[in-house]
Queue: 2 jobs
Job 1
Amino acid sequence: MKKAKNISALFCVAFLLCTAAGSVTVRAQMQQIVDDAPPPLAGQEDMLAGDRFENPFEGGTGGSSAPAPTHFTDSEIEVLQSLAQRRTNLERRERQLAQREALLSAAEVEVDRKISELNQLRSEIEELLGKQSTEQENRLRSLVRIYENMKPQEAARIMNTLDMDVLLDVIARMPERRSAPIMANMNPERARQITIRLAERSRLPQVAEE
């Protein structure tokens, strides 16, 4: 058994020696082929060195040509010019619309401001009218009390000369038991006009029939 193992080991060593010897022999043969090759012809050294060849994938210009210029027909040029003009018109139109929108916005702000001012002014006027109406009502009430405390003949004599609107306001605020004796002593035509005007004031407005 031990003898068989020794024989196997000897075979392995012999195989390795043969392999190494074969590699040396192959290398020697390749070197001999290179040495026996004829020298390169004139110009082949530069070609083999790559001086006259450029890699087209390395970005060189020797193996590539410039792209051919693009040529347009007259109709294509006309279409391009038309499109450019249309774009210019659209941009100008857009600017005009933007300016109009800005003007409208400014006008709206101004209108809102004016409306606010008018509302404030209306409130002030209504307040003044309310105060004036109150003061006027107080003055009329004072006149009514004055005429009520006068004798009917004296009150009638003065009322014959009063403005009709003022006279109507005073008579309308007097009780009937006070106004009747005064009107009885007034000018008959004047008393008739007062009666007609008071009736018109108390008449309700008629609704138009459909």
Job 2
Amino acid sequence: MPSARRESGANLISNPDAARTIGGHVDELVVLAQTDADLNMACVKFQMEHAASKASFDGTGEREHLLATLCRMVDLATKISTVVLHRAIGAATPKSTSPVSPRPDEMPPPGSTAFAAAAAEAPGMAGPASSVDDLMAGGELCTERDATLMQHCCRVAALAFLVSEEMRPLLQQHALDSGLLAVVRGSLCIPRHVELRCFAEGFKTEHMNVLSNFTFGSRSVCDAVAADEPFVLAIMGATRIDEENPGLVEWAEFTLRNVCGMSPAAADVIKNQKPITKPAYMPGSPSAGAGQAVKA
């Protein structure tokens, strides 16, 4: 697949490296997703739209063509990551009918049930029920495939926001309207046991990188983050060192700076938090959940 740089005028490209690199990740994403029954139709749709856009491009309307290309890439990454995330949560959920009391630090975050329901109904995507069965039956091979898919999705989304400074605000608004923020939120708030079982090291670092680029200079995206207090607290929690996610602290700090700089509401949420003065989770003390502020 041609890079974004070759498909549109180079004068619109502010980051040539990102423009050259993103095409390779899209290629890998499409090739891998085509082998997945739930994702094949999304890939076919992407390829048909991409081919039609390329064939009709006559050198005029470069801005519109570049924006459409980047939006199409972000949409593909959003659709694929939505399905992968939902079925990972489903596959890691015990099928026993007996009630299970998870540790507080493994409890799904507020809103995660609603996100899972929304993911199951993602437009244009097949339902995840069969995928969960496939994942359980396929074992490590399917888990590795999904982890690789998610990694490419993150890199496509993160790079897309770097390609063109001129197009970035429009792309950010499109991505917000298309549900990318919900996917990033779901990934950053994913229960720990699901993250460790289903995804590769650096899973949350990759998503925080996406969020940092996504929030940069966008008031609407930052306001959407600030309106979700548990999400803001999850980003704050990511500033603690996590051995499974090297670099997470730095990207979380960039994200907080972006969000607080654009949205006073987020700054108020952070200002109103109390410092943690003892461990958030202690054996035998189920009332103290991970990430909660504890009064002195």
